[in-house]
Amino acid sequence: MIDLLLTVFRYLFLALLYIFIFQLIKMMFRDLRAGDQAGEFRGKAAANSPEPARVEASPLPGAEAGLVVAASGDPGLPPGSVLSLGQGEEVSLGRGSRNTVTVVDPFASMEHASVYRSGGQYWLADKGSRNGTFLNEVRINRPTVLADGDMIKIGGLTLKFVRWTYEVESGNGSGFGQETK
């Protein structure tokens, strides 16, 4: 009786192991297909426009800050490219085609991170990525305030946060607190 029960458990364990391996392979192929679709989308966007989608060569008028590509293995995001950050819009970064910036990197998640403005400051938030979002070589776990010159790393993509204008609050009435460029 014990031998029969032991044999049944062995086959049950073997079946669960095969199901696990099958699910793992299925997930890998789904992830590869999603990455290929993002690459096709990026390729079509690049073919239809002379410059990469959503990346400007210089800051937009009225933009307060931007992300400058410092290092990238993606030909669609060459070093020196600038993404201007608007007043209230959120910039999403990831491999998925729905992101503001499509990061073609195997270490980037479909929805990896976002940069947004709140309370007069720009924030960087990781969206639960597996490989993490790094700010100045430190992995972040919660939304973090960005300062001028901060380096953001997602896989092989490195972005520098640049603040072109800022406001300084001062209560001394000495004329400070004016917008500076």
Please outline the helices and strands:
Elements: H1 2-48, E1 65-71, E2 82-85, E3 91-94, E4 101-102, E5 113-118, E6 121-126, E7 134-135, E8 138-139, E9 144-145, E10 151-154, E11 157-163
Shape: elongated
Q: What is the straight-line distance between the termini?
A: 83 Å
Based on CA atoms alone, the radius of gyration comes out at: 23 Å
Biggest sheet features: 6 strands, antiparallel
How many helical stretches?
Answer: 1
Helix proportion: 25-40%
The number of strands is 11
Task: Give the strand order, joined by hyphens, for the main sheet.
Answer: 2-1-11-10-7-8
Classify the beta-strand content into a percent band: 25-35%
Mean pLDDT: 76
The helix/strand class is alpha+beta
Give the uncertain stretches in residue-range form: 40-59, 168-181
Query: SSE order, as H and E?
Result: HEEEEEEEEEEE
What does this structure look like?
With 181 residues, the chain is α+β, with helices and mostly antiparallel strands. The chain has one helix and eleven strands; from the N terminus they run H-E-E-E-E-E-E-E-E-E-E-E. It has one helix spanning 2-48, and strands at residues 65-71, 82-85, 91-94, 101-102, 113-118, 121-126, 134-135, 138-139, 144-145, 151-154, 157-163. The strands form two sheets. The protein has a six-stranded antiparallel sheet with strand order 2-1-11-10-7-8, with no helix packed on it. A five-stranded mixed sheet has the order 4-3-5-6-9, with no helix packed on it. Strand 10 (151-154) and strand 11 form a beta hairpin. 23% of the residues are buried.
